[in-house]
Specification:
Elements lengths: L5 H13 L30 E5 L19 H12 L7 E5 L2 H5 L8 E2 L7 H4 L2 E9 L2 E6 L18 E4 L3 H10 L4 E3 L2 H9 L5 E5 H11 L3 E6 L8 E7 L5 H13 L2 H12 L9
Helix pairs in contact: 1-7, 2-8, 2-9
Length: 282
Amino acid sequence: MKKRFGIFAAVVIAAALTLSGCAKSDSATSSAAASCAKADLATVTSGKLTIATGQPAYYPWIIDDKPETGNGFEGAVAYAVAKQLGFATTDVVWVRTTFDSAVTPGAKNFDFNLQQFSITPDRQKAVDFSSPYYTAPQAIVSFKGSKIDGKTSIADLKGAKLGAAVGTTSLDAISNQIGSKPQVFNDNAAGVSALKNKQIDGLVVDLPTAFYLSGVEIPHGIIVGQLPSTGTGDQFGLLLSKGSKLTSCVSAAVDAITKDGSLAAITDKWLATDAGAPVLKP
């Protein structure tokens, strides 16, 4: 699998600059469908489910820019939701959009879109979101050969020099989850510079940012691991047009795969095991 980060990097950077908190889905404000049976769903094309992603789409969200394979975290989520809604794999149609065009008001050529859209109050004024399908945990970025390369537990990180940007949940995680005194930086760029200069052993950021930093910004970068989820963090939702009659049904499908454990299995496969970002043991 080849890691490609260009557009994904821009998305992460934009999110980091513009988002300061997490918000739950406001799907209750959408027009509820009378029935979630496949035959009653008001999809863009009758009998088909049209799903959008980026152009191109990147690892580990979509593998090899081929969402139709279902490989990658968001590809797998898309097909799991489609199945819950009653659509066979052959009934799914993929289209491509830019990130910016998807989050602006107006008619959409898709039933739902997934491109790591964070759920925010401002965006909810223009579009609908499903229930969250992903809450970003914190992760530790380092480099090959560092003091913490190969560490597998939080206990192994005792004594390591870890840093994070001021005012972030990442900074709190170092103190509260790892139990260390953090090195504080004005922003992630300053932390990356310190890591490159080996002034710190690791930088703590949210996992989507960790994929970018380890793959693009840091020479020989690695993700040491994810911190166990606390249930808080930046949340991603499936994006729908404002007032979509599908919103409640799509949310119900996300809730169903969350409840039955299939979403957790997808997350573990594509954002931990296969992505080289294991969850650190307590």
